[in-house]
Design a protein that fits this description.
By secondary structure, the chain is mostly helical. Helix content is 79%, strand content 0%. It is built from ten helices and no strands. Helix 5 runs antiparallel to helix 6 (95-110) and helix 8 packs antiparallel against helix 10. It is elongated and about 65 Å long.
């Protein structure tokens, strides 16, 4: 049978989504982080001993790294760095190389930031290259989307950080290195393998 704190956790999770959606539709801005911290504090108060054990198991190093990366990426976005890199890639004379560079930029930035945010910034820049006919538009956009998504296991993204935080403490360091190697390899290999394959069709 489920214990009290498990039932309360389930109720909080079920109520959270409609509450956030409802407040957004009503035009009320809600800080989801603050709401989640409040719910976490409530759960910790229900069973203080369990809360203390859970608190000790939090991977604080990963939490601090992700917060720092999010702040850094926010500064880069404020400075319009992603658009600057995209414009520099478009200035490359060879269309195929320009397409590869744009996809690599998308992968690299996505490893540390939001995939959808990166795509929203780079897809409009890729449109002139696709419209020129030098690189088929469907192949470029597909490679751009896959390149930005395949690196989501990076330890500095939400998905990778969640994987590391959920792993046993003794496995976290090794998992962090493995995920970092994977994502950095995919920054280069993803576009270089996928784009030529798509161009064959």
């Amino acid at each position: 049978p489920m214990r009290v704190h498990q039932v309360v956790t389930l109720v909080c999770l079920i109520a959270l989504v409609p509450a956030i959606v409802g407040s957004t539709l009503a035009g009320v801005t809600v800080d989801i982080g603050v709401v989640l911290l409040a719910l976490g504090a409530l759960l910790a108060l229900l069973d203080p001993s369990l809360g203390a054990r859970a608190f000790a198991r939090i991977d604080w190093s990963t939490a601090f790294v992700v917060c720092g990366i999010v702040t850094y990426v926010g500064v880069l976005q404020k400075l319009d760095a992603v658009n600057l890199l995209g414009r520099e890639a478009m200035a490359i004379g060879t269309p195929f190389v320009a397409a590869l560079v744009i996809c690599m930029i998308a992968a690299l930035v996505s490893a540390f930031a939001s995939t959808t945010g990166v795509l929203a910034a780079l897809v409009p820049m890729a449109v002139p290259l696709a419209a020129s006919g030098a690189v088929p538009g469907w192949a470029l956009i597909t490679t751009l989307g896959v390149s930005a998504t395949i690196v989501d296991a990076s330890p500095y993204s939400n998905t990778g950080a969640t994987l590391i935080a959920s792993a046993p403490e003794e496995d976290r360091a090794r998992l962090r290195v493995m995920l970092l190697r994977w994502s950095m390899a995919m920054v280069v290999l993803g576009p270089m393998v996928l784009l030529p394959i798509l161009l064959l069709f």
